[in-house]
Amino acid sequence: MAQERESQGREARERETNEREPQAREPQERVARAGEVSSSGLEGRIALITGASSGLGRHFADVLARAGASVVLAARRMELLEQAADKIERAGGKALATEMDVTEPESVARAFAAAEAQLGVPDIVIANAGVAEPRWFTRLSAEDWRRTLSVNLDGVFHVGQAAAAAMKAANKGGSIINIASVLGFVVQPMLSAYAVSKAGVIQLTRAMALELARDGIRVNAIAPGYFPTDMNRRFLESELGHAMLARFPMARAGALGELDGALLLLASDASSYMTGSVITVDGGAALAVG
Q1: Which end of the chain is more exposed for a tag (fewer CB within 10 A), N or C?
Q2: Same structural domain, 228 and 269
């Protein structure tokens, strides 16, 4: 009798497990499908990158082109943009250089129109353009303050509005990636305007994500730490820069390629369930500064 009850109990448990299995497998299958999509790269996608004439923006354009996307390089310095676009084309990619001043909505609109006319509506937009004006707070002029916020924060606003409008009009959705900074979370001396602008980018990213999700538009941000670019290379190579980096957990600046994982994650369908997220890539700098 005891053996019979044990056998009946085992059969009941097996039936319950079998009934649950299809539901349990479904999320796993969705994750697997997302992985299959992301592993195929970004073929067929169109990516627009601001601030693409140098630094992080130019690197992002190269990375996205290698992943298969057609890329639109946007900035003010056309000669440098054309050189970067030519390099991508010679490597077998597809690239367009277009002039854009992110502080001028009309200029942003013209660049998006040029991209759409020649390549199509961008479904990946990287709002990367930025400046820094290192000044002690008491010596920071109103012009310095306004210029930093105009490029770093207003520029993200203008580009985000143009990107969202284009994606909605085309009914295609997409991914907007705003480039924030670790200094959106913590502060360093002489960078008050920069830190405020990047904190604003983080909050703007979350606000955009909340409102645009219904249109199939994901909005996320990357918050880099210290990576050598034309903007900061001299400082990072100085004695003061070396001393600062030595205080960080990983005790070094980042290599540009160490941003590629976050970039490709947010640009691809591998992040299809991510919006309003901020990915920090800083070697632990925020832990030491904060």
Answers
A1: N
A2: yes
